[in-house]
Amino acid sequence: MIRLEDLRSLPRQAAAAARSIAVASSGRANPRFDGSVEAPGLRKPVRIVRDRFGVPHVYARSEAGAIYGQGFVHAQDRLFQIDLQRRLAAGRVAEAVGERGVETDRLMRRLGFADRAGRDLPALDADDRELLLAYTAGINAGMRSLPALPPEYALLDIQPEPWHPEHSLQLGRFLMFSFAPNWETELQRLELLAALGPERAALVDTDYPDDAPTATGAPIREAAGRLLEAYRAAIEAGAPGGGASNAWAVTGAHTASGAPLLACDPHLRPAIPTLFHVSHLSGGGLDVVGAAVPGLPGVIAGHNRDLAWGLTAGMADISDCYLTTLDPDDPGGYRTPDGWARGRVRIERIAVRDGETVEERVIETRHGPVVGLATGGERAIALRATPLEASETLAAMLAMARAADIGELEAALARWPGATFNFVFASREGDEGRVGYRLAGAVPARAHGEGLLPADGDTAADPPPPISGSELPGVLDPPGGAVVSANQHPGGDLELGEEFTEAWRALRIADLLGSGGPHTVASMQAMQVDLHSEPLCRLRDLSIALGVIGDASAEQVAADWDGQAGPDSAGAAMLETVYQQILLRLVRRVAGPVAPIVLGEAAEGAAGLFTPESRFHYRLQGPLIEACEHAASPWFDGREDRDRLLRAAWWSALGQLRERLGADPADWRWGRVASPAAGAHARRDSGDRPRLLARPLPGRR
User: In Å, how far from its chain's centre is CA 351?
Assistant: First the structure.
């Protein structure tokens, strides 16, 4: 039995006295937050208390009971979300939305998350399987407890199905794969190379700077020219020649309390609901508070009584594309260095709402599944990605939650499979606590420069094994007593790819940690919402010095700007829009017809399912502003050319803003330019109904 208590609607002084809640007066059916609910499969009672923020606190007598309760509240709060993600991971979207879901389902079936999950379940050890079964039973009990289904089901005219353990496993693989940033980029690099040649392609696909800060503080292997070398090597090998988060921690030496502090704010695309769900789980060896991913048991970022940990996207390259020749005489055959081989073939049948069932033949090669045809259609693309391989995600997350010290936490991180994440952690150990950083995940062992472009699958060796988790970059007890992770390069000599973001955020965080203090929870929160933009300040200063703004009122607004890109900022509206104009003009100048690849305008449909934005332009802000500062650059033909482009960018940006926001630059607001809407879930028809489940984000003015 599960006992439910809701403390939100009561005065604080009377919070211990729970009462029943009724269906909301609007007529919508809400989950039950008070009373008792029968819980099949639960051996001992579980108590779930909702605090004044609606966060569930699950109290049980065992780990299995706590995980059961977590599954229960995930179904109460996020049933449609986990159901939709289950459909997406399994390649069953077309069942709900019809023909427009077929291409997505084709890709999911090729990747084979559901197929692999069926093989994962028997491989779990007995303890992890028991917890997964408890979580599954909790979801199903929570589903049955709902007075009515969430309204999305009525909109799509579908019904949820019972949850099975395999669904969590396939969802875990799917989410891990969504953080594999490189496989589409490899194919895009090949297109850039074919259209631009190595010199111009390397301009828009930049290296991580040698002098930029790394997460560990260690230097990286010499980076200058490594992408250019990779492009040239690809031509010699026969290739055609003609996506942010922050986390940081400080020891008690930097805090008012004398205890360590950790802050973490994973950035994801705006969505309703968000990916994460916060809860408190207490039972057996668990007493942990933090963020979980509904559909998966455990906590991915949070704290127990001894440790706190947060994460950011690791950005390391964990996937490789192989251009593979298929046997024209054998639907399952493909070429290897030893001749033709036969892959594992399976036939997937995709049900389509209001349409005919679609059959998809999936071939798995020695490198991985065939996911599509290469440009020109002469060869297939086989994908090797570590999230598609053996996985211990569940075991690693539960081991993290149980860890009593940093040694146990690092042992859990060494088991982290698939996609890479930067883990920042803090411990109560010692007089002032301890802090550390570790890149965790399964990263293929590669030689210098490998993995940036597709390999020749016909001749390439078998995939290398992953680097041992203990060999990945990390630092413990750094001399300054602080660690910072903002998707920048972790440092070290390993070949980790080139998808890391620029170091602006890491530099800003380090500056704020060093200039303030002693730090408190409030100062950490202020840092998390800091909106300072150093690159745009540099662009402003350069524009004023060169006299290229061409409008006295706009120049005054720019000069008065404090560097904060808040929603009410006129200066931010101008500088952000001007930078976008500079980016468009310079990339189109260099990349011509393939500029959309760099700018992210070409990614759509199934091909852009995981990386709908360009993996190139977000690494260009620093190089482009530096190019503007030093006109003797491959981007410009001297200072006059640089000045002409900047004047044109300002003229165009100011014209756009006047047309949209009015004549006076002082009245412009960045929030009126930038604020998007957060969309909710998939809808069966996209054009005929209003966006009932979309909401504007805060900051709209």
Answer: 29
> Is 245 considered catalytic here?
yes
**102-111 helix and 113-123 helix, angle to the nearest 10 degrees:** 40
Can you say how many angstroms the Cα of residue 114 is from the centroid of all Cα atoms in its chain?
21
pLDDT digits (tens, 9 = 90+) for 441-487: 999 998 877 888 888 999 998 877 889 888 999 999 999 999 999 98
Residue 296 lies in a domain: no
CA distance readout (Å), 158 to 78, 87, 167, 324: 16, 12, 18, 40
Count of domains observed in the chain: 3
Torsion region of 433: left, alpha or beta (phi above 0 gives left; psi -120 to 50 gives alpha): left
Q: Does residue 560 fall inside a structural domain?
A: yes
Per-residue model confidence as pLDDT tens digits over 372-393:
877 656 688 899 998 888 777 7
CA–CA distance, 485 with 9 (Å, rounded to integer):
39
CA distance 464 to 132: 31
Identify whether 40 is preceded by a cis peptide bond (ω within 30 of 0).
no
Q: Is residue 422 part of a domain?
A: yes
Cα separation, 87 vs 167, whole angstroms: 9
Cβ neighbours of 357 (radius 10 Å): 9
- What is residue 235's predicted lDDT score, i.e. its pLDDT? 39
DSSP string, 321-382: EEEEPBPTT-TTEEEETTEEEE-EEEEEEE--TTS--EEEEEEE-SS-BEEEEPTTSSSEEE
From the candidates 145, 245, 319, 633, give the one annotated as an active-site residue: 245
115 and 146 assigned to the same domain:
yes
pLDDT at residue 211, rounded to an integer: 55
Closest CA to 269 of 133, 178, 389, 183: 178
Domain, as residue range, for 26: 2-178
pLDDT by residue (tens digit) across 578-597?
Answer: 999 999 999 999 999 888 88
The Cα 5–Cα 57 span in angstroms is 10
Task: Give me 169's structure tokens.
Answer: 């496993």
Count the Cβ atoms, other than its own, within 10 Å of residue 123: 12
> CA-CA distance, 297 to 302, in Å (whole number)?
14
The verdict on residue 381 lying in a domain is no
CATH number of the domain bearing residue 157? 1.10.439.10
Q: Which helix (H) or strand (E) holds 312?
A: strand 307-313
Dist. CA 118–CA 106, nearest whole Å: 19
* Residues forming beta bridges with residue 333, ordered by sequence position: 342
- pTM of the predicted model over 0.85: yes
Tokens in use for 458? 């016909």
